[in-house]
Model the fold of this input.
Amino acid sequence: MQKILLSALLSLPLFAFADGLPDLGDVSQEVVSPQLERRIGEQSMFQIRADRSYLDDPEVYDYLNRLGGRLVAFSSEPGQPFEFFAIDDNAINAFAIPGGFVGVNTGLIQLAQNESELASVLSHEISHVTQHHYARMISGQRYDSLAALATVAVAILAARSNPEAATTAVVGAQAGTVQRQLNFTREHEKEADRIGLGILEKSGLDTRGMPSFFERMQKATQLVEGNTPSYLRTHPVTTERIADVGSRVQQIPFRLVPDSLDFQLIRARLIAHQRIPQDAVVYFESALGEKKFGNPVAQRYGLVLALLRNNQQQRAIQEFATLHKQSPYNGTIEALRGQIKRLERDKDIAGFYRNALKNFPQHHALIYDYAEVLLQDGRYTEALKLLDEQVAQNGNDAKLYALQARAYSALGRHQEEHHVLAYNYILHGDLRGAIEQLELAKRAGNDYYQLSTIESELRQFREIAAAYNKKK
Done:
């Protein structure tokens, strides 16, 4: 297990460390800088993205980052880069990693009764990051490498489901590490509550979402200890904390905040994708038929997704026609509209995506699907232009590199194909695969500029691999 962890943690792509190779020497210091926190977080994320539980769903990803971005704007560090992502796990949990990475289990998203409750969890985790609680826990302690620091971060992450195993992992990685490094202190939790509540209020969300969430979490502690939600194990909810938050909320004027359509759509999407397709169809049919619960637009959106998964394409097309008449103009629904148009073999499907992206330029599902359509139509140069623009904005999107590789392959530009595949591999924590792709790229062409870049990256990746092998 340790070898797997270390391999992932040492696998940094070139664009993630512009100042050179990770420092494998002594990184002990009195203060862990924000820059070092970010590097620790980036290394941890390579393992997380490679894990099967990482939810690679662009709609869920975009929603969490829209909501999270709204909250971060009112934090004490609005310029701090953040990335929000989902873990496909029914356990009730959320967690923060140094450097601005916040994960949320799908179980918690489903449990939240309204958007403000979900936002209260995100604002709490944002506060752990902006208050640098992780750095404050480890400052002044000695670690022999950046990898050791990142291993502690991953162990904190592992505590979401198995705190005992996480403790063992940290102790094995760094002698003298103690349990207190896995859990935030009571002072940290109270501080995150207080600051998170302020973020909620400033962002225009309902501050009652925080104590109502805590109260339901506390009720869960009445379960058998082994079934206690992991969020409670790593973020203990005490009567004192609930009372403190409740008292603060009483001082804030009441504000009725309706849920966004996006919140309802994402919850419906998770139900449609996580349940057995036939069961999901029955669930949404019942919800629409009884009209007793849920947003009807979101429920019909879920029904269309469930029908598509159940191979009932014609009925899905019919239900979407009703949905399109009922719903406001929305990026998530437009992405589904694109899928329906592709089923109907719309002759100007590329034109549809081009226009949709003018209105929703950052919508990842639309971007990926547009690139797919261009590739399927043999419009490889257009696809590359689109993908190059997107990579320039986000160089850490593995999906973009995979799509680029397909375009380069179709054009016979195999040196560039293998070069971008190396980036795709490294973003999934596969250092060996990245080196193999770079070696293939080196043999596939003779462009001097490309070869120079490839040689430089190969040298750096091999040095990282050599450093890892020394630690085996």
